[in-house]
Amino acid sequence: MDRKIVGLRRRTLLTAGATLGGLQLASPFIISARGEAPVKIGMVDPLTGSLSAPAGPEVEGAKYAVAELNKAGGILGRQIQLLVEDSANDVGTGVQKTRKLIDRDKVDVIFGDVNSGIAYAMSQVTNEKKVLHIVPGGHTDPITGADCKWNVFRICNTTTMDATAVSGELIKRFGKRWFFITPDYAYGHSLQDAFVKQLKKAGGEYQGDMLPIANSDFSGTLIKAKAYKPDVLLNNMGGLAQVDCMKQFTQFGMEKEMALGGALFELEALQAVPVEAKAGWWTMEWWWNQPGVPHVAEFVAAFRKATGKTPSARHWFGVVAVHSVKLAAEKAKALDSLKMAHALEDLELPADVALQPGKVRYRAGDHELMPNIFVGNAHPAKAGANPDDMFTVAKLVPGEEAAGSVADTGCHMKYPA
Amino acid sequence: MFQVVLYNVTNGLIIGTFYVLMALGLSLILNLSNVINFAHGNFLALGGYIAYVLSPHLGYWGALLVAPVVTAAFGFAVERLMIRRVYNRDPVYSLLLTFGLAFVMQDLMRYVWGSNGLPLGLPPALAQPLSAALFFITYYRIFMVVFVAIAITGLFAFLRYSRVGVRIRAGTLDLDTVAALGVNVGVLRSFNFALGCLLAGLSGVLAAGQIGLNPNMGDDLLMPSFIAIIVGGVGSLTGTLVGGLVIGLAAALTTAVYPAASEAVIYVIMALVLLIRPRGLMGEEGMMS
Amino acid sequence: MSGALARERPTTAIVIFALLLTAPFWLPYVGGYDALATRVLVFGLAAMGFNMLLGFTGVMSFGHAAYFGLGAYGAGLMLRYVTSSTMLAVVSGTLLGGLAGSLFGTLIVRRRGVYFAMVTIAFGQICYYIAYSWNSFTGGFDGLRGFSRQPIDLGFTSIDIQGNGTAFYYFVLLIFALAAAAMGLILRSPFGRTLLAIRENERRARFLGIPIERHIWMSFSISCFFTALAGALYALLNNFADPLGLHYTLSGEIVIMTVMGGMRAFWGPLIGAAVFVVLEDTISSMTVNWMSFVGIIFILVVLFFPRGLLGMLKRRDAA
Description:
The complex is a heterotrimer.
Chain A: H1 2-18, H2 22-26, E1 39-45, H3 52-71, E2 80-86, H4 91-104, E3 109-111, H5 116-129, E4 132-135, E5 152-154, H6 159-173, E6 177-183, H7 186-201, E7 205-211, H8 219-228, E8 232-235, H9 239-251, E9 259-264, H10 267-272, E10 281-284, H11 296-307, H12 313-332, H13 337-344, H14 351-354, E11 361-362, E12 369-370, E13 372-378, E14 391-398, H15 399-403, H16 406-409
Chain B: H1 2-33, H2 40-81, H3 91-113, H4 139-161, H5 163-173, H6 175-180, H7 185-211, H8 219-232, H9 237-257, H10 265-276
Helix pairs in contact in B: 1-4, 1-7, 1-8, 1-9, 2-3, 2-7, 4-5, 5-7, 8-9, 8-10
Chain C: H1 3-7, H2 10-26, H3 34-57, H4 65-82, H5 86-108, H6 113-133, H7 135-138, E1 152-153, E2 158-159, H8 165-188, H9 190-200, H10 202-207, H11 212-238, H12 248-261, H13 268-286, H14 290-304, H15 308-318
Antiparallel strand pairs in C: 1-2
């Protein structure tokens, strides 16, 4: 189904290029009874630009889930249609596309964006238009904290959750003297603050450098780090910068003197690091290799069969997002945003969607999903093992434990009167 | 303390050499053809990706030498097919053309090689630090600086002593006269464009060994190269060389003191140069107007 | 020599405004929506302002996104930190971008051709880095958030441009019309004719005793004010300002809109902006490879349609 949509759209494009009336051709009007109309989900993600590496898998996961659900009868007996728009990692474009999906395409739900800044700007629009909005993978705290909104739910962890979860393990295993390498913007600052909070609780000490977001040369900072002789070097950089930092860390032979760690790491990033730099202690927000946990192996096999890829946390975000719409709509017995939002509160994901042990639910107080956080270490794949087997989970930290109370997040949930 | 000073200087030189190599290519094209090649960063990425494709077959060293040549050949074709057509038109057209080309190249590279970063494997001998005390200088960094130094010396020798090189330099000063002397200016410009792309491709292979490959990798290096040219003085290749090293050193020294400003400092330098010495450190009077 | 403007027929303006005034009514039938139409106006205004410099003075800037972006930040910062008056925000955005342009202009005007372009890019990137690095004031990389356009209070009634997208469209259209009228007046004035003289033959204008640098500086500054005004409206459209609005990529897009529509025609940039914004919006919904298509549009326009859409129509008229 989903392939067909994509194929059709590509072909429409060719036609559109050939005629001046491309605009009408590209946006067919579906005039049919409401009951026959598909459930429309609009997804805005930065498919181009510097965040395209995590954005692609999120969309791929959502597409996979849509195809699977449509085979099984869709949502409330209606087929699901996923409309994907590229935010190009630009706020103006992201907002524009959100308005387009809501105003023109009349979508029932909005997903996105990987970039927290865009996700926030989108939430202003979805809130104004009263459309249910699921943020699969934008991490900064305020989205479900100080800026929380009744219509906005988030799947990925907050930066605080990731940092808190890994802190305990780092302190226990390596020690309490840390050096931070942190990107100089809101995400980096809140991440480092969360780490420092845990470290101070344990009576530790630290030093650190704030670097430009897209920094690619870390030697200057690494030399300071080495002089400080920390127990742990915390690499808080994101995306490619994180990978560059790890590479230089190992090139300088520093792994013999201190442990490497940080909050969020992703399968996609791990695939991009050369073998010798696959190391360190991190959190994964979901991990595919969970021996003995029901449904996980089946899901991974089916996903590999459909896409040829090992599912990553980003894929899982996309899958959970689509299933959340189904679960909410079926619990609310409607596609009304307000009713669905109420239905999602404290809704527990079934085991074949959660794909991990324990109870996973959207916390009512701040609309943040409370999954387990997978703390462990990265390593090169062992000989004979799956090439994506590059991370070993040491501990599952329950999300609730890492998130703190709703009061701590600063969220005051207000529903429309 | 000695270590910190040594480090800053070395690191500044390493960053600077990157800027220089990239900026020299841009500068060559700008001087002879009056075209700002916005796609220069994409030629850099292309060079890196070609090396990535070739290295399993030719090994790292083979890829290092062949990839820039392939990039140059691609640049030659692009110049013949497109850039050549806008030489005698308002500069707005050449800017737009290379700007559009940058979009297409970046997108095609993402399409072919994906948006995930790809690692370019280095020979193990290069990936080691020099010694425990000089841990921050890997053999690769030394190799890079030496290799770039050789390449730049080769380029300057070529421009000074070879017939084509002399024509390129003469064309920079007065293209009409060169044409009147019977030199085929069209071919000269194509060759010169390809030479610029060769340098971009070489920077790409070297950068890939240091920071890995991704479709946007050239973007971050494009602006520093512009600034190297402005600071050094438009029209002077030696100026570009000096400009690149100056902003490289400045960026490295800033990282030591106030890392968050390491990107901004090069713009400050540019603004100062434009205020105090508008033609740039080594620019000829009148070249910029 | 006073060329383009004198030949501009009033029918063009009448047709354009008839279409713009009725847009909210016919747009839904061709797959458009209010926010898209507003975006067309915003970028149309930015490109027309830019074209004062490129098309009517013959000087090439590749850094106009900086003044557009500063306009957006100026409006955003005003709403965020100082006042809830939408009009004051628009004014302060225009002033911030326009004054910054006038200031940089003094350093830039002595350059010509690609060097002028190069220095404008570099100055633009300075603004980009300031917005990008100043976390506490501008919101840094994440952009400036936490403000939204407010209803306009006219004393006897208030216009809800906040919740009503159509009302906001008309608000932008009104400002656009006023700005276009101002631009038309400037270009028809003796000052505007002097600019055309500089464009046609700078050396001859210099011999006639025209202070070239001062005129180019004034043209640059005026063009920055109009582009900044567009930027301020853009901030209101998104309720957000972000560093990418200052980036040279956007400068390139403003240039291509101008050239695509026809840089020698008064309304050319608006037409170019409409075509570009709609094409980009449509193509990027269909394929993730939209960058290739946009890039190909750049290349095709340069190689085959250098006179732009209105330029081609005009030539046909003349033939």
